[in-house]
Amino acid sequence: MLSTTSARRAMFRSAGAPRGFTIVELLVVIGVIAILSSLILAGLSGAMRTAAKTRELNSLRQVFQAWTIYSSNYNDYFMPAHLDENTQTKWGVTYRDRGGNVLPAAQCVGYGWRLAGYLDYELDPLLGYLSTRVLEWDADPANIATLRGQVADRPAFGLNSFFVGGWWTNSSPDGTPSMLFDDAPIPGLIARTAGSLARASEQIVFASSTLRPPGTHKSVQGDEETSGSPYVDAPLLPTGQAWAPALGDPSSVVVTGGAHSTPFARYNRTVATCTGDGGTSGISLRDVSDMRRWTNPATGPEWNYGN
Predict the structure, then answer these.
(1) N or C: which end of the chain has fewer CB within 10 A?
(2) pLDDT exceeds 60 at position 5
(3) How far apart are CA 200 and CA 76, in angstroms?
């Protein structure tokens, strides 16, 4: 039988002995750590998207500045959004890459290579969204071919296809180049010069875009490396509806009447846009669908060519 002193010593040793965590306590700690980790990761992800949007808008400003330099060199005339091969031949124009090589006319139909010289061939503003891209010029034929194709067909930003600068083709019987929709009986439909852009602070010149086939497509924060397009179409054209936000789903766009280059929200759920006064911002797909942002005569968001 233990003495009173021995019993007290045993009791103190038991009370002072270290005790491990119970399973419940461990689960609570693990749960707290998981919640904190998810919050931190969400914050980091949001910060990364915000930084990406900032870089995107900075690139868009550089593209716009190069576009305005072109305009000032051509008596304030805007660069055509589309210049088909026959028109290039008729006008006797050729374009070169950074190596001084004359480019095939087919690669200069969109604005990319026609604008590249005004960017001093610094191509990151056009292709910065691609993780695998060729930005340094070198003698590797494969790299040169890849770069040529990316600049021609996949720039991050589309130029207002039909209503800023014009969509030029040479398909008339007498071989005279003309602008698509130039014969529409609507004064001021196509802005060709800086002075003819009626609402420069509202009207879109460039926007982040991608080419879509007919159907419903996610157009908000999808794959950030979704191919860009040298064009961006207005929601409504004289030939009919091109695209519209999906009913009940502001993150999707419905494309009709054939393939169209539509606005695309690459980062932070907003479409990067640049207006005629050089203002850049990210705006919602719904706001981009306002026809007043696309052409001079539009008097309301749902304006059409018959009113």
Answers:
(1) N
(2) no
(3) 14
